[in-house]
Design goal:
By secondary structure, the chain is an all-alpha fold. The chain is 71% helix and 2% strand.
């Protein structure tokens, strides 16, 4: 078991708490930087999708995992960023500027959607965000002069000041750099008073309000930041997919995004990327084993949905902490062997009497 003896404040706020962190994250960075020369073009494209969905997952993790707000309409922010990026890029805007505007536009939409969060919570907030998602999807289909409607909209390659990311490798590095910056921004946000306020609201709104935390401000801010990250992910998604249509941002996409953070591990930035790996890798795994299944099962149109549902139920019942929680248990088992005990990670949540009766 590793113990870190901290002697000053600077040591406490360091990103890498000890040499092990610096070594493993540095090694991961080297592997990701060398990925274009180690992987085939198809696998590199899948890794690019993992980075894109990981950025969106970071936003949803801030909202659901750290603030405790339930959203079933995140595909609306994802789509708003994608369409904004496509329209601005096709107009000749530089890629960084277009992506910044796409993120800001999605953040503005997130503020509008976050307003109901001030009065409702739980399943009612989920219904409100679900309804908003339907409205935005219909808007994408009807606003044909801008989005192309159901006919779709082609997206130009990202360009900036004479440079163009017109290849798989160059665009992969764009996504990698964006994912690293987004992760560092979220990591620092969670260490700041704003992130601590998010966690306090998640744990107990009554206690947070009693400590002077402005619930309306921080809930709306959480929605805005989450939507901005979803919009940035959507901007990258638009260039990766090269063609947008409204059915790409429907309720199924929202459920996939929520499924991603739940299976990855709520309350963990690592879980956003682990969930993205699951979301991108599971369809590939299903396709790989289809040939070995009976024809009636392998060719069933709802096979993917059944597998997703079964996996989600299994995680909720047997591993509610998600993939990252499972990794923590494995790591702790090796560190404490033979003194590890089963109930070590059992969830213990105590409620105030006033909350228990609500």
């Amino acid at each position: 078991m590793r113990f870190v003896f901290k002697t000053d404040y600077a040591q406490d706020i360091r990103l890498a708490q000890h040499g092990g962190h610096a070594f493993w994250y540095g090694l991961l960075g080297l592997v990701l930087a060398a990925a274009p020369w180690l992987l085939s073009e198809y696998v590199l494209a899948q890794l690019t999708f993992v980075l894109i969905y990981g950025i969106v997952g970071l936003g949803l993790m801030l909202l659901a995992g750290f603030t405790g707000l339930f959203s079933l309409g995140h595909a609306a922010f994802f789509g708003a960023g994608a369409y904004a990026q496509a329209v601005l890029t096709n107009m000749g805007w530089p890629f960084p500027l277009a992506m910044a505007v796409a993120g800001l536009l999605s953040a503005a939409v997130g503020v509008v959607v976050g307003l109901p969060a001030l009065r409702v919570k739980g399943i009612y907030l989920g219904i409100a965000t679900l309804a908003f998602g339907f409205i935005v999807e219909e808007g994408f289909a009807r606003w044909e002069s801008v989005t192309g409607g159901n006919s779709g909209l082609a997206v130009d390659v990202p360009r900036a000041f004479g440079w163009a990311a017109d290849g798989a490798t160059s665009f992969y590095f764009v996504c990698l750099a964006t994912a690293v910056l987004a992760t560092l921004a979220c990591r620092n946000l969670l260490r700041a008073p704003t992130g601590r306020a998010f966690v306090a609201i998640r744990d107990s709104e009554i206690s947070a309000q009693g400590m002077g935390i402005h619930l309306a401000y921080y809930k709306t801010l959480s929605f805005a930041i989450s939507a901005a990250l979803a919009g940035i992910g959507g901007a990258l998604y638009a260039h990766q997919i090269r063609f947008l249509s409204p059915d790409q941002f429907n309720i199924i996409q929202s459920i996939d995004l929520l499924l991603m953070v739940v299976i990855g591990g709520l309350g963990s930035l690592h879980g956003a990327f682990l969930g993205a790996i699951f979301l991108i890798g599971l369809p590939q795994a299903i396709s790989a084993v289809k040939d070995f299944l009976p024809e009636a099962i392998g060719n069933a149109p709802g096979l993917k949905a059944v597998v997703y549902g079964a996996v989600l139920i299994a995680f909720v019942l047997f591993e509610p902490l998600g993939l990252y929680g499972r990794w923590l248990k494995i790591r702790t088992w090796f560190q404490l062997f033979p003194f590890y005990r089963q109930g070590m990670f059992r969830r213990q949540k105590s409620f105030q009497k006033s909350e228990r009766l609500r």
